[in-house]
């Protein structure tokens, strides 16, 4: 899906047109607004609309034809048109979420995506370089191009890398030139202590509940990969920089508390840390109420970890 979009300028133009209409209408994917144009909302969210409506919203018959030819738009049995992806719209920024995927390579967007976007808006106040580790759709990285000179978006899966590249294509030329997308393991290959802001929504679901999806699987307890993201994030952090990391915080009956222990080690090295508990944990019910799948688990909560590196902290962690 994303590769097809990237290889066809008219299809990119059609999605950019649709995004422009959505932004002009004040649409935001994370806010339900009954006053919105029903056809606009349908097309954006992957529902079918009449062909003349689709043509108007995508920038004209030529653009619709390009979308149909590339497979980005599909004509159903009743002659109605729908997109093979949802358009994500938030904070003047666009991205796509493909509707279908091969097993294991889902391009993730969910409630925590919007939490990360809000935290990026709050803590990412601007500067030289930012990085989004495990970028998924690329929405948050694309947003940060409005505030940072350069933003790197990394991901492990080819499907996410290609989809984040679409988010880059949907930016205006100036912001587009500020974003690069890199396929790598977390931040491997990126320089130490070079980033003023590191954001990440790390995989935090225990393997037993992740269904084989790379976007969710955080290792046996879910903490293993999240803590590797934290350690990489801190390695990348420039003096006075900030890490914003979403993950789970688990406590076990033998006294282990892996996230709290990692943060305590960082404080002993001079970093300042904060933990914000995600309110209304219903969407994160794998940790609360506690499932029996994780042996010895006493409690779990979804959190945002914020790590500040003062100007004179040691460069080792
Ligand atoms: C929970 S999703 C978050 C996606 C996106 N940041 C968001 O908030 O919508 C986690 C992301 O991390 C990526 N990922 C998983 N393991 C990774 C690794 N070792 N290195 C880089 N990215 C990884 C997944 O492909 C997925 O896109």
Features:
single chain; 317 residues; alpha/beta; Rossmann fold; 2 domains; seven-stranded mixed sheet; globular; binds S-adenosylmethionine
Polypeptide structure, described:
The protein is of the alpha/beta class. It has two domains: 2-90, no CATH class; 111-308, 3-Layer(aba) Sandwich (Rossmann fold). The protein is 33% helix and 25% strand. It has helices at residues 2-6, 9-24, 38-44, 51-58, 61-70, 111-123, 139-144, 158-169, 173-176, 223-236, 258-268; strands spanning 73-75, 81-83, 85-90, 93-98, 127-133, 148-155, 179-183, 195-201, 237-252, 272-277, 297-308. The strands form three sheets. The protein has a seven-stranded mixed sheet with strand order 7-6-5-8-9-11-10, sandwiched between helices. A two-stranded antiparallel ribbon has the order 1-2. A two-stranded antiparallel ribbon has the order 3-4. A hairpin with a 2-residue loop joins strand 3 (85-90) and strand 4. Helix 4 packs across helix 5. The model is unreliable at 286-290 (pLDDT under 50). S-adenosylmethionine is lined by residues 108-109, 112-113, 116, 134-137, 140, 154-157, 160, 185-186, 201, 203, 214-215.
Strand content: 15-25%
Relevant CATH superfamily of the largest domain: Vaccinia Virus protein VP39
Instruction: Report low-confidence residues grouped into runs of 5 or more.
Output: 286-290
Ligands bound, unique: S-adenosylmethionine
What Rg do the Cα atoms give? 20 Å
| Sheet with most strands | 7 strands, mixed
Question: How many domains, as an integer?
Answer: 2
In round numbers, the mean pLDDT is: 91
Total number of beta strands: 11
First-to-last CA distance:
40 Å
What is the annotated CATH architecture of the largest domain?
A: 3-Layer(aba) Sandwich
| Overall form | globular
Order of helices and strands: HHHHHEEEEHEHEHHEEHEHEE
| Number of alpha- plus pi-helical segments | 11
Return the structural class. Answer: alpha/beta
Strand order of the largest sheet: 7-6-5-8-9-11-10
Determine the CATH topology of the largest domain. Rossmann fold
Helical fraction equals: 25-40%
So what's the CATH class of the largest domain? Answer: Alpha Beta
């Amino acid at each position: 899906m994303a590769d097809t979009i990237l290889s066809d300028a008219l299809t990119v133009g059609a999605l950019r047109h649709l995004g422009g209409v959505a932004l002009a209408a004040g649409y935001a994917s994370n806010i339900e607004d009954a006053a919105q144009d029903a056809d606009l909302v349908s097309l954006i969210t992957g529902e079918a609309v009449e062909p003349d409506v689709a043509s108007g919203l995508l920038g004209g018959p030529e653009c619709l034809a390009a979308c149909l030819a590339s497979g980005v738009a599909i004509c159903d049995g009743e002659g109605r048109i729908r997109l093979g992806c949802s358009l994500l719209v938030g904070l003047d920024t666009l991205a796509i979420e493909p509707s279908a995927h091969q097993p294991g390579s889902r391009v993730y967007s969910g409630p925590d995506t919007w939490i990360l976007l809000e935290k990026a808006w709050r803590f990412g106040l601007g500067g030289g370089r930012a990085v989004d580790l495990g970028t998924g759709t690329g929405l948050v990285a694309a947003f940060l191009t409005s505030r940072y000179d350069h933003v790197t978006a990394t991901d492990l899966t080819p499907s996410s890398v290609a989809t984040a590249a679409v988010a880059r294509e949907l930016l205006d030329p100036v912001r587009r030139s500020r974003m690069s997308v890199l396929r790598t393991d977390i931040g491997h290959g990126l320089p130490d202590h070079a980033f003023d802001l590191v954001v990440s929504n790390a995989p935090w679901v225990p393997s037993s509940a992740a269904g084989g999806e790379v976007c969710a699987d955080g290792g046996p307890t879910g903490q293993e990969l999240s803590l590797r993201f934290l350690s990489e994030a801190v390695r990348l952090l420039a003096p006075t920089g900030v890490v914003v990391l979403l993950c789970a915080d688990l406590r076990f009956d033998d006294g282990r508390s892996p996230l709290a222990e990692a943060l305590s080690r960082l404080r002993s090295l001079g970093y300042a840390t904060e933990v914000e508990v995600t309110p209304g944990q219903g969407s994160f019910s794998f940790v609360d109420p506690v499932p029996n799948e994780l042996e010895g688990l006493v409690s779990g909560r979804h959190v945002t970890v914020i790590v500040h590196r003062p100007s004179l902290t040691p460069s080792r962690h």
